[in-house]
Specification:
The structure holds two protein chains of two kinds. Helices cover 36% and strands 38% of the residues of chain A. By secondary structure, chain A is of the alpha+beta class. Chain A has a four-stranded antiparallel β-sheet. The longest helix of chain A is centred in the C-terminal third of the chain and has 27 residues. In chain A, 13% of the residues are buried. In chain B, a hairpin with a 2-residue loop joins strand 2 and strand 3. The chains are: A alpha+beta, B alpha+beta. Chains A and B meet through helix 1, strand 2, strand 3, strand 4 and helix 2 of A and strand 3, strand 4 and helix 1 of B. Strand 2 of chain A pairs antiparallel with strand 4 of chain B.
């Protein structure tokens, strides 16, 4: 019984801590998470704009109960309780620069950030996937 | 789930005031959540003139465009293979 209560308390504390962590997850929703501090350089002010994505989840469980049947060595003490528990969690966070905003005498200019390496890699990946699918289709035609 | 627009602190440069805007997508479940926050545009005020400047996500546009082209090419390839298969049967 005491073990069961102990596990319940442990589960409640874990749940409270996890909920606090989940609450902090939504700090990403603040404006400061995507727009950087303005940087002044002469007549120009630069602001970076990024995209942020965060995901988090967790679960846990505890259980206790009396075993069915007799247990050797448990005479006179009553059946021993068995208890168990487990938990797990995971998360993902990513951030990517989208543009640089320049404010100056010429007005406001938005310069998009283009990652050429990523584009080339994505092109080769998609081209490879296309060739693989084409090969499978042709093999299906022959076979 | 909620989608909302968020405005950041205005930035004053000379006589130009810039108000950055962003969009937040949130999904909450009992023990977790997902947040996607991205910039969408700027409100630029200069004197009495107010205009909205969008912030394009060029990388996403390129990636989605390439994925769409790949799917279209696959669809055409599949149709060509199907046509070849039916011609062989005849």
């Amino acid at each position: 019984m005491a073990e069961k209560e102990g596990f319940t308390l442990l589960a409640a504390r874990g749940s409270a801590e996890a909920k606090e962590l989940i609450g902090r997850l939504f700090d990403v929703a603040r404006p400061e998470a995507v727009y950087g501090e303005p940087m002044r350089a002469g007549e120009y002010t630069l602001i970076t704009a990024s995209e942020a994505s965060v995901s988090m989840g967790f679960g846990f469980g505890v259980g206790a109960g009396e075993p069915q049947g007799e247990i050797e060595g448990a005479e006179g003490t009553g059946a021993a309780q068995e208890a168990g528990g487990g938990g797990g969690g995971g998360g993902y966070a990513a951030s990517r620069a989208i543009a640089v905003i320049s404010v100056g005498p010429n007005g406001v200019v938005v310069e998009p950030v283009v990652d050429v390496t990523k584009i080339v890699l994505a092109f080769f990946t998609m081209f490879g996937a296309f060739l693989m699918m084409l090969g499978k289709m042709r093999r299906g035609l022959k076979g | 789930m909620q989608v909302r627009n968020v405005a950041s602190q205005p930035v004053l440069v000379g006589d130009t005031e810039v108000v950055p805007q962003s969009r937040v997508w949130e999904i909450r479940w009992p023990f977790g959540g997902w947040v996607w926050h991205r910039p969408v545009g700027l409100i630029v005020r200069r004197g009495s003139e107010v205009k909205r400047v969008p912030i394009p996500d060029v990388m996403r546009q390129v990636m989605v465009g390439m994925a769409a082209l790949t799917l279209i090419a696959l669809a055409f390839a599949w149709l060509a293979v199907q046509k070849q298969s039916s011609e062989r049967r005849v």
